[in-house]
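Hey, resending since the last one bounced:
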Amino acid sequence: MTDFQATRARFRIPDGVIYLDGNSLGPLPVAAEERVARTLTAEWGGQLIRGWNSAGWMVQPRVVGDRIARLIGAPAGSVVVGDTLSIKVYQALAAALAMRPDRSVILSDSGNFPTDLYMAEGLIETLGRGHVLKAVAPEEVEAAIGEDVAVLMLTEVDYRTGRLHDMAALTAKAHAAGVVTVWDLAHSAGALPVDLAGSGADFAVGCTYKYLNGGPGAPAFIYVAPRHARSARPALSGWMGHEAPFAFDPSYRPGEGVERMRVGTPPVIALAALDAALDVWDGVDMADVRRTSIALCDLFIELVEAQCPALELASPRDGTRRGSQVSFRHPHGYAIMQALIDRGVIGDFRAPDILRFGFTPLYIGEAEVRGAVAVLKQVLDGGLWDRPDYHRKAAVT
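The structure tokens again:
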């Protein structure tokens, strides 16, 4: 059994704060402070440019990738880290489309995170080959899979509601129709068990600053199924994805396997923080995380519906059909969330009307759930949210 009391001690959370926003930005792992300091002083400061070899900076993307692979059901050597999630979406989608040159439809759902859809639109325009993006309601995805579809591109857990797609079933249906799959694990990795290899997924991408606690702007990862690793076409042929970067050849030759999906120079300091953050997972069983997460979310829903009837549940009620978050609707959701944050309960808001709360057993327990609902009830019962400053939208919501 995972010792969640021990994992809680490995995070720095301010006193008096109930942090229910790890689904947007994970808190600071204590180990990351020392690790980043060492990278700055002993490695960069002491070794200077020699650190690329002596401190292992050059191999960080695949070393850290292997650590993430364990958490998403991927074999060693199939995940590489670097760049941003938008870039990784672009790479995966471009490679997937190249595998089906005779088809034109990219199938997604209307609940997908906007950047995934934006990247698809931009790629379609760049290619200029008549591709179309078709976004249907989440519950209509399975029926929309057909032989005109080139790529099924989905985010496993809906960022607004937490709705969970059945990766194995949809991947099987896609493959039966000759469709290549791209899965976005931004709200899955570190939140619930993922089995990329077992489900047969072709490509997957994800960020590391949410449930993996890599820090703001932490680099993203990309997975390429081993069966595709030597043939996947890297649309962004950066020098780090070259077979021999320091040969400085005038023409591009793709690197071996998933290494070809590297693009730019590794963000060494960010990767050091992420690597330290992943230490927390060494003693954690994802089945324990999932079971506890569902219990915490169920308790939160029960208490909110009993004590805060003005809020409407936006997430699936069945815990097996949602990720590690719970969302409620209210016409003044933004102001309510600001009032909560002002009182030490930190969640976030997603337009147009969703209050979003993330539950991470690594540092959240039943006491935090009950405490958060008590504050929420005070805010609603007392109309404490209805202040002009709480209605004023900040740049980040």
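The domain at 4-29+285-391 is CATH 3.90.1150.10 (Aspartate Aminotransferase, domain 1).

Sorry for the duplicate.
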